[in-house]
Amino acid sequence: MKFSALLLLLLSVNVSAIAADTESAKLWLEQLSKSLRQLNFTTSFVVVKNNHAEPYHWLHGIAEDSQELEIFSRLNGPRRDILRQGAIVSYIEPEQEPYSIISNDVNSPIPTIFRGDISAIEDSYRFISVGRSRVLGRVAQLVRIVAKDKYRYSYWLWLDQQTGLLLKMAIFTRQGLLLEQIQFTHLEVSEQLSENLVQLQSSELPGVIKLNNQQQNKSLSWQVDWLPQGFAVIKSNQHQLNNYHQGDDKAVEFMLFSDGLVEISVYVSLSHEKFRAPEYASDGATIIFNQIIQGIEVGVVGAIPLATAKKIAESIVAVTKMKVSNNTQRGIKGAER
Amino acid sequence: MSEFKSESISALVDNYSPSTDDSVSANLVDNMLKDEHLSSTWQTYHLIGDVLRDEVPQSLQLDLSKTISAAIALEATILSPNSSTQAFVQQDAKSDDSSSADNVLLPVSETVQNTNTVIDASMRFKAKVSSFVKPMGQVAIAASAAALMIVGVQNNVAENSIPVTPSQVVQTMPLTGYANPVSFTMQSPQGESSQQNKKVLNEQLAGERAAQQRRLHALLKDHNQQVKLGSNIK
């Protein structure tokens, strides 16, 4: 009798604790978003995937005119930098001339949603505050962003107790297999803009390219019939896919979907081959899937499980004449299914 | 006298021996083995030493031998399974007896049987009660232990900041199962099947693999590029 009373008491404590966990997890993620936008910080981190590590430098600051300044630079191999002045994002890469685009997104190893409104992914992911541990010599709060279905991965974030900044991130499969992680190796929060950012402030970024060829959503002849809940089309177009092979470019129909945290690219083209068995590769959490069925080549790329990529690839169907008239709606329709 | 002996025991506990120190009398060990009081003093001093050196085990067992003998004394219920089998065997014996028609012995064995069953019944009752009570107690203890563990784990998470997950283990060996020095892990059912006649198809396979890698790499590169260029649907 005594024991059962004790048990009941404990259970009730646990239930209320779980509800509190979700609430506090969201508060932590909001704090992270705020810190990523408002603090001056200088950090280094290492992306670990496929058994090799890539070190990065990341600087962020707020100029006097309250413009955000940001630098990401990869430290190993050829230079690969991302510079940002407010809404102008410049990519400096070895493959092509430096260019800038007007964008709110910075395509860095750190998902963009972390600096945005985290409640945008609330429908597809659960937030759980797990506990504290020590990361980077600091007290860290572990927050898990757990996928609500089996079609995507879960993200674990270790956030600095003091500033709410990211100290470590890991991407896990539903079975608990670690796919990719980002470990911060240095973190410095300061009042002043760091020297590099002061320099960036006065430097001129490469010219902003116009995305004319991407501007309009051409009507496509293929559509995706199945996507995990929460994914919506954010872009679709036709472009040349450089195949690394003597300028043997290939025209593909392209669709980009996002659930707020993860992007999925879908490529469809007609092939002269009739059939090619599914082939895939993984780059950390990102899967690259490709197959030809009945003369249609389908490629799916994104940080999703293989089964999801396969299911998406298999759901490609030709657009019937009626639907061609309104392609934007079509994409969204696909996302709803 | 006793004071002096205690002192010498203390010296003995602190690693002085009769040969090196005067305060330890030569026949102290012999006396100690005979005298129960002295041997308990010896035990207590060791315990004090352990406490001072912070070497006390988690659950303090002051005298193991006493608890064990007490437990053995209480363990009478073990007889119960034997008693039922005994009865069964004797019943068998009885039927054997009757078939052999040895009538003289039969009443004797009957009486033995009767007394036996009486004893058995009382024993079995006891056994039943104890076997009923025991699991209940065990369940209660297990439940309370589990409850305490839940509390303990929760507290640990809050205080010692250790996540209840295997992440700590995973961290030290990142990306197992994805071990590949190249930037891609490749897998294709086609490639596997053609491995059977390796020598003939080796070159073809290599070419195929290279083409496959090119294709997949092109996709990955374009994906990254497209994500960078961002959305055109506002």
Automatic annotation (TrEMBL), chain A:
Keywords: Periplasm, Signal. Residues 217-316 form the MucB/RseB C-terminal domain. It comes from the Bacteria. The keyword Signal applies. It is found in: Periplasm. InterPro entries: MucB/RseB_C, MucB/RseB_C_sf, MucB/RseB_N, MucB_RseB. Residues 24-196 form the MucB/RseB N-terminal domain. Transmembrane segments: none annotated. Residues 1-19 form the signal peptide. Belongs to the RseB family. This is Sigma-E factor regulatory protein RseB. It comes from Colwellia marinimaniae.
TrEMBL record, chain B:
Signal peptide: none annotated. Gene3D superfamilies: Anti sigma-E protein RseA, N-terminal domain. CDD domains: RseA_N. Belongs to the RseA family. Residues 6-84 form the Anti sigma-E protein RseA N-terminal domain. It is a single-pass membrane protein. Keywords: Cell membrane, Membrane, Transmembrane, Transmembrane helix. It is found in: Cell membrane. It comes from Colwellia marinimaniae. Residues 167-228 form the Anti sigma-E protein RseA C-terminal domain. This is Anti-sigma-E factor RseA. It comes from the Bacteria. The keyword Transmembrane applies.
